[in-house]
Design brief:
The protein has 263 residues and is of the alpha/beta class. The chain is built from twelve helices and eight strands. It has an eight-stranded mixed sheet with strand order 3-4-2-5-1-6-7-8, with helices on both faces. Strand 7 (184-193), helix 9 and strand 8 form a beta-alpha-beta unit.
């Protein structure tokens, strides 16, 4: 297996399409021939449910159990017991119990490296490992940032906030200084876009001014379309649900940018 890249999808603001981006980026990369592992690191379990896991809270082995084993120094079970295999991508699912793990991480010496300890041995099996995070800057997000090589930030023009983005960037830079020196910001991807509106144009200009030459903006823009919501409701990626839709094409183009950058 070629060198693996671990990508964390993060934004502490809800409603920006983090889970949808993580899911569809993973599927689009898989369509390019890459081996992809999705990691659900949000107690809300939306990524797990988008994978078709209808009752994540009934899982007997999830991210919560795995991290508890890592913290207790226990030997992990065989990968086949905790990695679920789909037709194109694999996933490590989670459930609401992951919120308990976050509490336990507070008292764990070196707890910010717990996810990294779990994922590092999996690099040899995948080209890309994509981590979906929860919508706030807590210890779970810190763990995800500590474990990754790059961060992708989904931003919705309708919800964009300079304050929120500044807080996230400050957290990323602090993690880079103190925990994970290799971390970089791959860029911002615009989601839920309606390019016909004045609101989009104004928000886009503000983002361009804010980012300047410091932060890359991906060329692909994910349109605001009901097809994405329908695909999520059907527990499928947009590439499977409506392969010819504008959103599917946008995610394919986005994945091409991500994979070309990774080479």
């Amino acid at each position: 297996m070629d060198k693996c890249k671990i990508i964390t999808v993060a934004n502490q603001k809800g409603g920006t399409g983090k889970t949808t981006t993580a899911c569809n980026l993973g599927y689009a990369l898989a369509e390019q021939g890459y081996k992809v592992l999705l990691v659900d690191f949000d107690p809300q379990s939306n990524l797990s449910m988008s994978f078709g896991i209808e009752r994540p809270n009934e899982l007997t082995l999830s991210m919560h159990n795995l991290l508890a084993m890592v913290m207790d120094g226990e030997t992990l079970p065989e990968k086949a017991y905790y990695i679920m295999h789909g037709s194109k991508v694999d996933i490590i699912p989670c459930n609401i119990n992951l919120s308990v793990t976050e509490i336990n991480l507070r008292d764990e010496l070196g707890g910010e490296h717990t996810l990294s300890e779990l994922l590092e041995p999996l690099r040899s099996d995948y080209h890309f490992i994509i981590v979906d995070t929860n919508p706030y800057l807590g210890l779970l997000t810190i763990n995800a940032l500590a474990a990754c090589d790059e961060v992708i930030i989904p931003v919705s023009p309708q919800l964009w906030s300079a304050t929120g983005l500044t807080d996230l960037l400050q957290t990323i830079f602090k993690v880079k200084r103190k925990i994970n020196s290799r971390i970089t910001i791959a860029g911002i991807v615009l989601t839920i876009c309606d390019e016909r509106t004045r609101l989009f144009r104004e928000a886009k200009k503000l983002l361009d001014d804010f980012c300047g030459d410091r932060i890359k903006m991906f060329k692909a823009r994910i349109p605001n379309t009901v097809k994405v919501g329908e695909a999520n409701y059907a527990s499928r990626s947009i590439l499977e649900y409506s392969a010819d839709s504008k959103a599917a094409l946008a995610y394919k183009n986005f994945a091409l940018e991500v994979s070309s950058h990774a080479k």
